[in-house]
Amino acid sequence: MKTAHKQQVPVTTAVTAFEQLDGVLRLLVAEHEKLLALAAEHRRAIAQADAPALTKCITTQQQVVQRITGLERQRQTVVAGLVKGKGQTRLSEVTASAPEPIRKRLESVAAGLRELLIKLHQEHQALKQAAETLSMHMEGLLRQVCRGISHTGTYARCGAIDSAVQVVSAVDVRS
Predict the structure, then answer these.
(1) What pTM does this model have?
(2) Are the beta carbons of 64 and 149 closer than 8 angstroms?
């Protein structure tokens, strides 16, 4: 029985595993592309302070992340079958041992996935900054409202007007 390059896995089994890896990587690319599109929607929802759209984005993102988690488990299982006890191995090392027609496809899909992950990281950094900006804006508005309705101007320890402090003041008009 023939064996794959530097492995104890039979060639036909290895080819099948590399084909499975290719399929899983392509599905991962598709799911990450969905996440990238959702990140743009998420940013629009934050910019417009659209709570229902934001909720919808987050719910959809969670569903996509769950699918990615399942695909990642599949990828790890396929890779573990290919490396047979070598421990943690980089995807580039695994694809380097693939037969030539499959190797080019795997390298191409892996490179595309890597680029997509970099874009997603950048988008999520932008989302984080937008969310923090919106949060600070809302906090400022809340402080102005509290300042406007606090007839005593009572301050909390942090130096802001504390709307939780209740001051009871009344005039007895019967006496």
Answers:
(1) 0.71
(2) no
Cα→Cα distances 131→29, 40, 45, 59, 134, Å:
26, 13, 10, 17, 5
The angle formed by the CA atoms of residues 151, 157 and 161, to the nearest 5 degrees, is 25
DSSP string, 25-49: HHHHHHHHHHHHHHHHHHHHHHHTT
Distance CA 163, CA 150 (A): 7
CA distance 93 to 142: 54
Query: How far is Cα 77 from Cα 27, in angstroms, rounded to an integer?
Result: 15
Instruction: Please identify which residue in the block is written with the tokens 């992340």.
Output: 65
Distance CA 174, CA 154 (A): 29
pLDDT tens digits, residue range 112-157?
999 999 999 999 898 888 888 878 888 888 877 766 666 555 555 5
> What is the rounded distance in angstroms from the CA atom of residue 32 to the CA atom of residue 28?
6
Crossing angle for the helix pair 51-83 and 11-47, nearest 10 degrees?
Answer: 160
Residue 175, amino acid: S
